[in-house]
UniProtKB/TrEMBL annotation:
SUPFAM superfamilies: DNA polymerase III theta subunit-like. This is DNA polymerase III subunit theta. GO terms for molecular function: DNA binding; DNA-directed DNA polymerase activity. It holds the Pfam family DNA_pol3_theta. GO terms for biological process: DNA replication. Signal peptide: none annotated. It comes from Salmonella enterica (Salmonella choleraesuis).
Length: 68
């Protein structure tokens, strides 16, 4: 189970996990028609992770078609 310990990963991997959580929260709110401005959330992310955040948003938005 040590492979699942987030504290044992690099800072970069921890940052990516945090970005994934934020992106999933944005998409969740969009699906529930709750007010959220994705571009404002993008601007809040660190500069070096913004492109990764946009890619995760796109992936999660497209995963809607695969879910019931």
């Amino acid at each position: 189970m040590s492979g699942l310990n987030l504290a044992a990963t690099t800072k970069e991997e921890q940052d990516k996990v945090a970005i994934d959580l934020v992106a999933s929260g944005v998409v969740y709110k969009e699906r529930l028609a709750m007010p959220v401005v994705a571009e404002l959330v993008v601007r809040e992310q660190p500069e070096h992770l913004r492109e990764y955040f946009r890619a995760r948003l796109e992936y999660l938005r497209n995963s809607r078609t695969r879910m019931p």
